[in-house]
Prior knowledge:
The protein has helices spanning about 5-30, 35-45, 50-65, 75-95, 105-120, 125-130, 135-145, 145-150, 155-175, 175-185. It has 10 helices and no strands.
Amino acid sequence: MQTSTVILVLSLISISISAFLNSGMDDLVNSSRNCHFYYSLEEKFKCGPNGYPLGYGSKYCSKFLQKLTYFLPNEQKWIDNTLLCLKKQAYESYKNISAADPQKCEKILSWNFNAHPKCYIDNGFCELIKENIVSFPYRLMKNVYEMKDMITLDSVKQIKETLIGCFKSLKQSVNNAELEELFSAYY
Length: 187
C-alpha cells in the first residue's frame, strides 16, 4: 500500500472516530434534563470537585432538576432553556480550550460564568422577575442556590450583569408608573 493511501485511510478513521465521539457529546449537550455533560467536561479538564464542571455546572444543573417541581410551569420552561443554553456555552469551552493549557480551569470558569447572564436574560429571566419579583427569587435561593456560591466575585459579577440587563430591558418595555409599582415592595 502506498504511503498516501495509508494516510488517507488513517485520516478517514480519525474523522469517523471524532464524529462518533462528538455525536455522543451532542446528545449530552442538547438534552436539557440531564447533567451528564459536565462529567465529560471534568474528564477532559480535571478541575476537581471545586472547579466549574463539578463544583458549579453539574452541581447546579442537578439541583435545578431535582427541585424542578418547586417552580411554576413558566419558570420550569426557563430552567430547561437556560440549562440547555449553559451546556451549549460549556460545550464551546470544551471545544476551544486546550486540556494542556495550565490556566484551563480558570478559563473554563471564566468562559462559563461570562455566559450565565446572556443565557438567563435570553431565556426570559427578566420577565419572570417582573411577574414574580419576590416569589421567583425566593424559590431560587431557597431551593437551588447556596449563599456561599452567591458571594464569590465571579457570582457577584454575573448577578450584577444579569440585573443590569434586566433593568435595561424593563426600562425599554415598562413606563415609570409600572416601575414604581414593580419596586414598591422595596421602599
